[in-house]
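Marked as duplicate of an earlier ticket. Keeping the data here for the record.
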Amino acid sequence: MPKRGNGEGSISRRKGGGWMAQYYAEVGGKRKRKALYARTRAEAAAKLAKAIADRDGGFVYDDRGITTEKHLTRWLADSVKGAVKETTYANYAYVSRNHISPAIGHVKLKSLTPARVRGFYGDKARAGLSTATVKKVHVVLRRALSQAVSDGLIPRNVADAVKPPKASAPGEDIKPLGPEECAAFLEAARGERLEALFVLAVLCGLREGELLALRWEDADLESARPALLVRRTLTRGEDGRGWVVGASTKSGKGRRVRLARRAAAALKDHRKRQLEERMKLAGPRKDRGLVFASETGSPLNPSNLRNRSFKRVKARSGVREDLRFHDLRHTCATLLLGQGVNAKVVSEMLGHASITITLNTYSHVLPDMQDTAADAMEAALGAIP
């Protein structure tokens, strides 16, 4: 067999059995010897040929023993933070820290396989994680591994070969309150410390995090056209503990939401009660200017909001037990669309990235509106005899 030329690598039999192929490649500006292992000489030769072709084409994969957790940490710090909205970064960090790292964080990048990832998703689903959350885990892992491929750490993204659980179709799991149920819910909220929060959730469709991050400086209650500037949201701290107020968009500009008279009145009453509360309470208080805060002035814990005040109001109102806080936002949207408000206006009010999201999410409301459209056309052109 002819001797291999310089740079073509070498193949040798291992003492313990099997074969080893070796070649040199430049990694990080340094010339390094790399080894490949196979059961037969033919397999070793095939692996060597591919590795040399990749090397000559500029593709050298060297994860340096990096674990999945270490890569996720570096990816979040170098590629995600500052490049996406603060809320997106916080969500990615939470998913990485609480779902991915505990399960497969110890696995080296080069050792991840589609089967390993598929099993990881299955374990999460069997543990009770919702389909939507498992899909979020897939999105985060897939994007992190895509960066690893771009960085030349691994040759392929194994998450591309795994199909995440199928999520519900847009609007499939939406269960808004009807007008009578909505009235009962708001009536049950009267006198609650957070009554104004529930009024805003229904009448303005703000997200939970947006409500809990509102500051008084963003509320214009005295003008003839009262409004809110929604530009912040409440997210988890980077360490997974506590809550912080951050910008809801990368630009920080936010959106302006007009207030109905009832919403403006509820906020004014809330501000008055909040000032009276401050006068009565003794002890240290951190005034951060939050509209909805704890008695000490710190951000409210969303879990406490849902499990205490919201749960209490829901039980008192007599509406269905499975009502979620987010359904109040869906209630706002469906009531507005049902009243014939332009979908573009509803989309801007809710802060959707595009009107397409609004139409896809609330398409179940639109068929009923076609009767109104037909009646409007007849009124415009006159009934045909």
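See parent ticket for discussion. The mean pLDDT is 85.
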